[in-house]
Amino acid sequence: SCTLWKDENDRDKTFLLKMISLLFRDESILEVTSVVPKNQSTKNFRNTNVFIGFNKNVYSFSKEQIKITSFSNQELIEGVFINNGKYVVFTPNTNFLANTTYLISILAENGLNKAYEFQFSTGSEIDNVPPTILSTSPESGEINFPINANIVVNFNEVIDPTSITGNNFALQGNPPGSLSIQNQSLSFKPASNLIASNAYIAIVRNGIKDLAGNQMSNNYSWVFSTSEFASSTCTYDIGIFGLCLFE
User: pTM of the predicted model, to two decimals?
Assistant: First the structure.
């Protein structure tokens, strides 16, 4: 009788897990939301990797569905595809040719809503230099930073979007929020207002990479303090993310 009870209990658990899986199944349409290097961009480094971003996590994309070819002679570029969260990352086996245009073709399979095509061109240079931080908002030592502000970090080159994770950016107290990357700029949007009249330490860790896989040489940290109030203006809007940094 103990065995019978155990079998029935296992069946109940299996049924419950299936119901939960069906209840929370993501049935939204899968679509491509970004590609790096950007479509139609020129003078990209020859040792760049290719990053294809989607609106949700992907698991089964490969060279059978995504092909990168030379635009002039349709020669297939061999390399390795890795699924990384919402991104598929392509690392070519050898550097791209200099001053050459390449075509990214993505077939409408594995739930993808439609076929996509993008192209980019290389320059003549190879990137062996780690990325560095040019500026931050707030600046180091800044006071009266509005409590509803986004924190922005500007790099000297385009950044690997898969390296923008909670492991590589931190704000004192670990307030919840969301990270995003747009070209050379990282943005952290707190889920709620920061603490008023409070000092914060922000840190960008050296796990941040550029498109060629070069990592930052050192961690970067700075201190700032907040104002008592929220802001309703776009004083800090630098036009990168297409929205006010204060909401």
Answer: 0.81
The pLDDT tens digits for 49-107 are 999 999 999 888 888 899 999 999 999 999 999 999 999 999 999 999 999 999 999 99
pLDDT at 1: 54
SS3 for the chain is CHHHHHHHHHHHHHHHHHHHHHHCCCCCCECEEEEECCCCCCCECCCCCEEEEECCCCCCCCCCCEEEEECCCCCECCEEEEEECCEEEEEECCCCCCCCEEEEEECCCCCECCCEEEEEEECCCCCCCCCCEEEEECCCCCCCECCCECEEEEECCCECHHHCCCCCEEECCCCCEEEEEECCEEEEEECCCCCCCCEEEEEECCCCEECCCCECCCCEEEEEEECCCCCCCCCCCCCCCCCCCEC
The side-by-side arrangement of strands in the sheet containing 199-204 is 169-171, 199-204, 220-225
Residue whose structure tokens are 């986004």: 150
Q: Is the pLDDT of residue 145 over 70?
A: yes
Query: Residues 6 or more apart from 235 whose CB is under 8 A from it?
Result: 246
**Does 134 score more than 90 pLDDT?**
yes
Q: Say whether the peptide bond before residue 131 is cis (omega within 30 degrees of 0).
A: no
Q: Which residues of 96-135 are buried (b: 16+ CB within 10 A; e: fewer)?
A: beeeeebbbebeeeeebeeebebbbbbeeeebeebbeeee
CB 194 within 8 A of CB 112: no
